[in-house]
Amino acid sequence: MCGIIAFTGSLDVIPILLEGLRRLEYRGYDSAGIATVDEAGIHVRRRSGRIAALTSALDDEPLAGNCGISHTRWATHGPATERNAHPHVDEAGDFAVVHNGVIENYLQLRQQLEDDGIIFRSDTDTEVLPHLIARFWSGDLVAAVTRATEVVRGTYGLAVVSRHAPGTIVGARLGSPLVIGIGPHGHSIASDAGALANHAEKVVYLADRQVCRIDANGWSVSTRGAAAVDCATHDLRQLVDVGDADLGGFPHHMLKEIYEQPEALTNAMRGRLDDADATARFGGLNLDPRQLRGVERIIMTACGTSYHAGLVGEYLFEELARIPVEVEYASELRYRNPPVDRNTITLAITQSGETADTLAALRESKRMGHTTLAICNAVGSSIAREADGGVYLHAGTEVGVASTKAFTSQVCVLAMLAIYFGRTRHLSVSQGERLIAELRALPDAVHAALRCHEVVKQVAQRYSHVRNVLYLGRQFLYPVALEGALKLKEISYIHAEGYPAAEMKHGPIALVDEETPSVFLVPRGQVFDKVMSNMQEIKARRGPVIAIASPDDREVAKVADDVIPIPDVPEWLQPIVAAIPLQLLAYEISLLRGCDVDKPRNLAKSVTVE
Ligand code: AGP
Known about the structure:
By secondary structure, this protein is of the alpha/beta class. Helices cover 36% and strands 22% of the residues. It contains 21 helices and 26 strands. α10 packs antiparallel against α18. The radius of gyration is 25 Å and the shape is globular. The N and C termini lie close together (9 Å). The site of 2-deoxy-2-amino glucitol-6-phosphate (AGP) has 15 residues, from α10. Residues 303-306, 350-352, 355, 358, 401-403, 490, 606-607 line the site of 2-deoxy-2-amino glucitol-6-phosphate.
C-alpha cells in the first residue's frame, strides 16, 4: 500500500507533490521520491525514510518544473533503501515510473530482461515496468504503458513520465486505486482523492484495466489503450473534508481521532434514527423488503480492527435481529469455498475501502452470487463502489494508522443495522424505541468515558516497561479485548493477546506472572460475577490486574491493582464505551516508549496489497 501523486499543469509541481505525499504518507512511509520531466530530460530525487528526508534532499538539490510524479513507499519487495525507492527509471533514463501494487511475475520478467542485457539497479518488482515501457516504446506513451501492463500479472496503480513526452503523464490501474484530479491549473493522478485536496476540483475514479493520459490542457481515459471511455466526474469537496487532515491542536492524529469519537458517533447516527417507526433508516442499502426479510445468514468479512468490529456485530445481530452471523477474516474467506446460499448477505467492514483482502473477499462473494453490503468510511472508495449497497460511517478522515473513531463508528452502524433488521422481524415498537433512546445517549457516554484519560496516564506510567499484556473480556466485550490488544501491539510494539476471560484456564493462564499484567473488561452486567472470578484466578497467580470497570465499583477495587472507570451503559453498547480507555492506554504507553504513534513501524493505514 504505497501512495502515488503526479501533476502536470501551469503550477510549480514540487510543492503540489510534496503536499500530496504528506496526505498519502499514511499509506506507507519507508521511502519517498520525486521525478520531474522537461525538455532536458528526467530528474529524480529519492530518499529512504519519511517524506521529511526527501524534502531536505530537495532543499540541498532543488528540482523545478510543471510536470512530475512522486511516491511514498511501504516496502513489499526489497528493503526500505534509497536504491529501492520509487520512481524507478529504465537504463537510458527515458522513462520513470511510480507504482502501488505487486507485480507477481516480476522475477520471470526480470530474468527475461536480464537475458536481453538489461542491468537492474534495485531489488524491487516495480523496476521491470520502466524497462518494459522502454521496450514497447514506439512513439506513443499510452500504447507503450498499455503493452507493458499486458505482460505483467498482479496489481498496479501507476504513473509514468517520459522525456519523449514532457508534460504528459500516463496512469494505469489494476487492483490498486487510482484517481484523476481535474483542476483549473492542471491535472493530477493520485492513489486517493484526499491527496488532491489542494489543487483539484473534480475527481475521476479509474476502473480496473483503464489507462489514462493527462497533460496541462486535458485528460482522457481508455480501456487498455483501446477506445476512449466516458467517465463520471465527482465534486472533490463532496468527497474530502480538507480540514480533517490537520491536527487541530492535538499532538497526534490518533489522539485527535480518539477525542473526535462523540462527534463521529453523532455523525454516524445523523438522519438514521427513525423515531416514528422506532427503527433505523439507511439511504444506500439497496435491499428491497423481500430481500430484507429473506436474509437468513450474514457473513461479515474484514481485517484487523474492522474484523473486531464485525465480531461485536455478530453479538449485536444475534441479540437484536436473531440472524445467524459468521465473521471471517477477509484474507481467509477469499480463498475458502463456502456453500452458496441465495439468502446469505456478505457484509464487508472497512475504514479505507481499499483493503486488498477485503476487496477480494467482496468480489469473490459477488462472483458466488451473494448480495454484498459494505460499511465504509472513505466515500467513493473501491469497496464502497463495488458493493451492491452499504452505509458510510461519516467519521471524517482517519489519519492515524491505529484505527479508533472508525472502530466505534463501525460498531455504532452495526448496532443500527441490527435494529433495522430486527424491527423487520421480532423487535417490537417499544423495544425499538428503547434501543434508539439508548443510542442517542451514546455520544455523551463516550464523552464521559474520555474523562478517564488522567487515570490512564498514571496506569501507563506503571506498565510502559512490560513485555507482555493480556486483555480479557466476555460476551460483547470479548471482541473489545482483542481490539485493545491490537491497539497496544501496533503502536507500542508490546506483545499483547486478547482472550475470552474464561478461556484463560485452558492454557493461557500459564503466561501469568508478576511481569505480565492482565487488562480486564469488567463493567457491571450479566457476566460480571464470572469475570470477577476470572480476575481472582489471575490474582491468585500474582498477576497484576488492570480493571476497566463501572464507576466507584468497590468490589472490583478490592481485587484489581488499577481501576479505570467508564460510565455505565446498556451491555449492547459497552463495546463502544469500553474501547475508549484501551485506545488511550495504548496511546499513552506508546508515547512513554518513544514510539511513532501515528506512523508505527512496519505498518500503513491502508493495506492495498495481499
Ligand atoms: C487498525 O488499527 C489497523 N491499523 C488495521 O488492522 C486495520 O484495521 C486493517 O488494516 C483494516 O483496514 P480497513 O478498515 O481500512 O479495511
